[in-house]
Amino acid sequence: MTAGVGYAANGSEGQLSGTADVHMRGVLQPAYVTDLGGGALPDATISADSGFDYLHPVPEPGAAGAAAAALAALAARLVTASRS
């Protein structure tokens, strides 16, 4: 994210600018619908124009590959460490 702003103070003009790296991580969890008392409504439906199912989200295919690669790297490291 980059931002800039011009200013004038005491007859002098200037420019302020800055840059920030923003990293956000999150986990997509299923949505749930409750009544006013907080009780779950198990037969509720949520529809989206995109067709995405918010009640039963499925991880993207790339996530499974990344998880498998991470587990393989961890296993290789453990095997190497146990041989030392």
- The amount of beta strand, in percent, is 15-25%
* Number of DSSP helical runs: 1
Overall number of strands: 2
Largest sheet: 2 strands, antiparallel
The helix/strand class is: alpha+beta
What portion of residues is helical?
A: 25-40%
Strand order of the largest sheet: 1-2
Question: Which ranges are low-confidence, i.e. pLDDT below 50, for 5 or more consecutive residues?
Answer: none
Q: What's the structural domain tally?
A: 1
3D shape: flat
Please, could you describe this protein's structure?
The chain has one domain. With 84 residues, the chain is an alpha+beta fold. It contains 1 helix and 2 strands, in the order E-E-H. A hairpin with a 2-residue loop joins strand 1 (2-9) and strand 2 (12-19). It has one helix at residues 61-83, and strands spanning 2-9, 12-19.
Question: Which characteristics define this entry?
Answer:
84 residues; alpha+beta; two-stranded antiparallel sheet; 1 helix; 27% helix; flat
Summarize this structure briefly.
This protein has one helix at residues 61-83, and strands at 2-9, 12-19. The protein has 84 residues and is an alpha+beta fold.
Secondary structure topology:
Layout: E1 2-9, E2 12-19, H1 61-83
